[in-house]
């Protein structure tokens, strides 16, 4: 397996389960779980928000699988650098690429390169202690916009209003804990192009926003108006009708809208007629604000050169990104107000407004990276495949012995559990090919050959026992502070604890 995230681990499990039922000795399959990081579990460790410890319980399930003696963890080994396609073809009967997705999609609007414009993954990898990212993250924005209406956008918005005290029990590394101490965010706007019925939030994640102490959620009541009597054009009427039907027919959408309506109702009951009034009241009461702004498409991130170190701007700006100086920082997010179209889509109205912000976080999706020598479809940013069998091009022929699973196979959607059925599908075909004798015989199938090759290349492999040493160390660091774990801050610290090569040679 190349990649030890959920997909790689679930694919290993499926392969071993197949072996248990098809190979009487039960020793016929040996799986190497290879990862470029010294620690396993991919986005489960470096994506799932730290204030979601409930979900991290899945780590225990994955741990249970990974502890099977037929699985060898080979961490700190990068495919494409430490091992090439030619190497793995020479060493294994079959290779499953499960390398996930770690980079941010862009919005394709001016100003995305300004200081203060971040991809969600930049923030997420920082707060989740990804060992390779800069330990400093500038949490200096008073007003931030998060673009996107999926659960990652909710994670980012929620984390932006967190205090260090609220993160005390989590496993974030110490430098991240310290970083949150300087967090100045007061107002976080979650921006979506379309109306709330088209948001991809899950109800549980949305409801969590209501549980953060010191935070008020603000909703614009107009965004929740699906009454086609209140529209000006036939297209708007049709759009409102479609939204209302979706709200009534889809259970998840209904629950999401019900939660938003509950917040709007609380504002109304408090005598606050508009979202602006509700925001002002919350700030006056000393709360932070998370505000949902639907039906607004970002068209430009606006920058200004005069902003201070924090890039603060409380007034609307008249400077476009193109006019700003080289040290320009984000001062506003320009939004075009949208309206629904008769076919259920959305179009811009030409009317824009500038939302004054000091930082913009794009949570518009992740993107997989291509792997050296492995076919890659740029359009979808996935490995072309037929139910997990890697194809030489989209719609092309299968390459015997090469398979794929998880986000790099299907694109960056779906929760952790989705990767299990995805991996089962892939392994089903792998074992079919094994049974049919169509997997190529490796030139050097000795299970020790890969370790010898890596040692020869001077790769500091973090193997299973070395990872356990890191695991124990992190648990010890956590225990000392009364929490389950405290993550180590970087790769060097991990390798140091793991004992590097010397340990792996034992
Ligand atoms: C911000 C965020 C929050 C999320 N929160 C939740 C949540 O709360 N609940 C939930 O169920 N799901 C959540 N998800 C979704 C979940 O994380 C994914 O479904 C899942 O991690 C995808 O699994 P994967 O194995 O395909 O990829 P990944 O988890 O990305 O694992 C890929 C692995 O491959 C390794 N790798 C990459 N390139 C190489 C290479 N060249 N050589 C060797 N190794 C390599 C990586 O280091 C990584 O360990 C979240 C996702 C994100 C982005």
Characterization of the model:
The chain has 506 residues and is α/β, with parallel strands linked by helices. The protein has 18 helices and 18 strands. It has helices spanning 6-22, 42-46, 53-56, 58-66, 85-91, 120-127, 151-160, 174-181, 203-208, 234-249, 251-269, 275-284, 407-410, 418-436, 449-456, 464-480, 491-498, 500-505; strands at residues 31-34, 71-75, 95-97, 103-104, 117-119, 143-147, 187-191, 215-219, 288-293, 296-304, 329-340, 346-356, 359-362, 366-367, 385-386, 389-391, 398-404, 462-463. Strand 11 and strand 12 (346-356) form a beta hairpin. Helix 10 packs across helix 11 (251-269) and helix 16 (464-480) crosses helix 17 (491-498). The longest helix has 19 residues, at 251-269. Residues 2-8, 34-37, 42-44, 47-48, 52, 55, 78-80, 98-101, 124, 152, 155, 366, 371, 406-407, 414-416, 419 line the site of flavin-adenine dinucleotide (FAD).
Question: Can you give keywords for this protein?
Answer:
single chain, Rossmann fold, globular, six-stranded parallel sheet, alpha/beta, four-stranded mixed sheet, 2 domains, FAD/NAD(P)-binding domain, binds flavin-adenine dinucleotide
Brief description of this entry?
The chain has 18 helices and 18 strands. The chain has 506 residues and is α/β, with parallel strands linked by helices.
Low-confidence stretches: 307-322, 501-506
Number of domains: 2
Distance between the termini: 23 Å
Computed CA radius of gyration, to the nearest angstrom: 25 Å
Structural class: alpha/beta
The first-level CATH class name of the largest domain: Alpha Beta
